[in-house]
Amino acid sequence: MGTQVSKQVVRRKAISTEKKSLCDLHQNCGEEYPGSDYRPPDRKNWMSGLDPHKIHINKIVWPGTHDSATNKIGIPLITRPFAQCQSLSIYNQLARGARVIDIRVQEDRRVCHGILVTYGIDVVIRDIKKFLSETQSEIIILEIRTEFGHEDPPEFDKYLVDQLGEFLIHQDDRVFEMTVAELLPKRVICVWKPRKSPHPKAGDPLWSSGYLKDNWIDTDLPSTKFESNIKHLSEQQPVSARKFFYRVENTVTPQADNPVLCVRPVTGRIHGYARLFIVQCFSRGYSDRLQILSTDFIDADFVDACVGLTHARIQGKA
C-alpha cells in the first residue's frame, strides 16, 4: 500500500512539473506566428473563404478531431467520462471547422472506443452528407478504422462507396498538388484502415492506411507529448515533398496507473497549447512539415489557429 501511494506521489509531481513546463514555455514564447491574427468570417465555409482556386491540398493545415464520434459514447455520467473525447456531433464539428474526422468501428458497424460503443456508422454518414449538402467547397478527410481487438465489418468498403460514392476523391498521388477547386465536386478523401480485409489500391474510391500517418504516444504527461510531437514532426519531409498526410495530435490520455481517468481533465493539460505548438514549429524550423493537427473537444480557437496558418501559406507568408 505504501509503495502504491509513493508511486502516485511521484506521478502527481511529474504531472505538475510538466504542466508548469508548458506554462512557462507559453509565457516566454507567446502565440504569434504568421497568420495567428487571422479569424475566418465563417468557420463552416472557411475553405471557400480562402478561395478554392488558391488552396493546394498539401498546403492546408487541417484541423482534426481525435476519436470524433464519442459525443454519446457509453452511459452518461457513468462510463462516458472515461471515453468521451468530443462533446459535439460530427455535423457540429464540421460546422465549427473540423476537416479531419477520426472514426473507429467494430464488427456490427457501430462506432466504438475500446470496449465502449455508441451509435452506428449511419449516424456519422448522415451528418457528413448533411454538412456537404449545406456547403460547396469544403474538403473532408474521413479516416475510418477497425478498432483494436475487433473484426472488420463485413463488406465495409462496399458500404462506404455505396454511401459516399458521389463525393469520393479517388486514391491518387496527384491529389496532393491539386487545388480544392480542381477536385470539386468531389469532396471526401476517405481513408479506410481495416485490420484483416483487403486494403484499398491505387485508383480505388477509398484510400489505404499509408496515406494517413501519425506517431501516437500514449501518455498523460503534457510536456512529454508536446516534445514527442515536435520530435516526430521534425523527422518528416516538408508537406511539398510528401505523398501522404501526417497528423500530430494535441492530446494526452488517461493512464491506468493514475487515479484521474476521465478524459476531459487529463487532455485539458495540453488542450490550450495548440498555438504554442505552431509557434514552436516555426522557432525550431519545422513549420513547413505541419499538416494535420488534431485535438479532443475541438473549439473555435483551435480551428482559427489552423486556418490562420493555412491563410498565411496561401499568402506566401509561411
TrEMBL record:
SUPFAM superfamilies linked: PLC-like phosphodiesterases
Gene Ontology BP annotations: lipid metabolic process
GO molecular function, a single term: phosphoric diester hydrolase activity
Pfam families per record: PI-PLC-X (PF00388)
Start and end residues of each Phosphatidylinositol-specific phospholipase C X domain: 51-192
Protein origin, superkingdom: Eukaryota
Coiled-coil intervals: none
Protein name (Swiss-Prot/TrEMBL): Phosphatidylinositol-specific phospholipase C X domain-containing protein
Organism: Tetracentron sinense (Spur-leaf)
